[in-house]
Amino acid sequence: MIEDKVYAARSILVVGAHAFDAEVIAGPLAAAAVKRGASVTFLHLTMGEQGHPCLIPAHYCAQKEEEAGRAAERLGVTVRNLGLHDAFLPADDGTALKVCDVIRELKPEVVITHWHGSWHKDHRAAAHLTQTGIFYAALPTIARDHTAHTPGLLLFGENWEDDDGFKPEHLVDVSDGFDAWSEAVHEYELARGLSSFPYVDYYSALYRLRGCLRGTRHAQAFAAASHSWNAGSGLFAPPPGGGRGR
Ligand SMILES: [Zn+2]
After folding, report:
1. What's the 138 CA to ligand 1 centre distance in angstroms?
2. For the chain, which domains are there?
3. What is the pLDDT of residues 139-168, one digit of tens each?
4. Which of 64, 57, 83, 51 is nearest to 23 (CA)?
5. What mean pLDDT comes out for the span 66-77?
6. Cα of 86 to ligand 1 centre, how many Å?
7. What was the pLDDT predicted at 246?
8. How many angstroms does the Cα of residue 29 sit away from the middle of ligand 1?
């Protein structure tokens, strides 16, 4: 069961296009995993600095860095920021290698990112960069500072902007992470009325809705990578049974 695998992990990496994305696709799960002893890192590819109607991007970037830090403290997670540019996130191999480096350094067992079916180009890029980053991280012939690593599980989280074809295949009980999530997202001005979209209402109701179907107070939905991806992502690892076949 996916939930058992997630909560058995000692290290989890969540990759979001903009600060606040990791918090909504896996915030309650992160807080719940931390309570179970896991080490969770949020990798913000950009700070989402273009998203303020009044502040110039440089000023909003600084504000979001502070907000992301306070939110991470409330969730108990570590935060990383690649410092790339909001609205111009490149879906290229050089950027995927930066994601690869973080994966190799942290060696997470579980990686969570955006579902690729999004109207937002940065979100599509983040999904692509994460999958390609895992591919590069697993390839031992690619020499980087850290040794090769293959995460055992890649999941795609639920985000209101990434709804094109998303199927809630797996529901994970996040009941004991919800309160920390609620406090964490309120550290962001985005959750306190900056946007016309009612983020907190939407996600609070969504996690409750998924919880109703999971049979718990709150749950988060995830889609899994394809069978061939799961088989192929371990292709470069040593063969099981000392080389006697798979
Ligand atoms: Zn975003």
Report:
1. 27
2. 2-234 (3.40.50.10320)
3. 999 999 999 999 999 999 999 999 999 999
4. 64
5. 98
6. 9
7. 46
8. 18
